[in-house]
What we know:
Blueprint: E1 6-11, E2 17-24, E3 27-30, H1 32-35, E4 41-48, E5 54-57, E6 61-68, E7 76-80, E8 95-96, E9 105-111, E10 125-131, E11 141-146, H2 154-157, E12 164-167, E13 170-177, E14 186-191, H3 199-207, E15 211-212, H4 219-223, H5 233-246, H6 266-275
Parallel strand pairs: 8-15
Antiparallel strand pairs: 1-2, 1-4, 2-3, 3-7, 4-5, 4-6, 6-7, 9-10, 9-12, 10-11, 11-14, 12-13, 13-14
Amino acid sequence: MEWQRIVELHDRESGRFGTGYLLAPGLVLTARHVVDGTLSMHARLLEPDADGLPGRIGRRQPTKVAWSGGADLDIALLVPGDSSVAFLPGASPGIVARLAERGAVRVDALGFPRAMDTPAHADTLHVEAVVSPWTGVRGASLLLDVKTARPDGADEWKGMSGSAVFAGDRIVGVVEAVPARLAEGTLRATRAGLLFNDDDARAILAASSVRRSEQVVDAAYVDALPRSGSWGGVREEYTRAVVTNLCRIDHVGFAVGGAADGRMPALAAFTAQRFGPWPPYLTR
């Protein structure tokens, strides 16, 4: 998931709002009920600050509905109101996948629920959840058991609708509703792969180079990737670079240069370089 592709959707006339996700430079994925009956839905993207991190939200861009599902498929595709412009030029096409029908899979989503609103602006909520593909196997929906911070009550979830649900780096669903008869902290999402069952939707996706992965996603696939929102490999890469530059270390973390006995823990070697031999017995 890329925060640069999270879309805030808002219709000023009706007051309706929700979330979308950029599948391609000029294509937004969202829930059908977010845009049903709207005439002036606008999209806004988060913009980076001076450090490249999420900053202010950008300008409003008019949209139009390119395709929407039927009564049993709560998905829609939006394109720019002006076909000569793109929501985010240069964005690479997203990849949609199906969940393997075995075992629980960790998923996450990022959206703009009402619970995160402040007097000054709307804000994002990142949720991590677990999905069992065996729950609701006859329907079009996935049930998300949210494990992180959650709004208090169904009304406070409003605005999260339309958020793309990710399993690792693959889009597997679109948040549609809070189930009325299940415990708080449960969300329902439409299976994103169902887009490819419709000829018109499939043609729109193909025109934007959005494809469906041939590989189904299971827990092993997701667990092999860094967690969304974590340092992941960046932290390890940075740490290795710093330590390697300060004192040469071998593959098990012992110094092979600059140490008194030629083989001592890397931290001790760093201390010796900066502050002299430590502990004192190394000088004897």
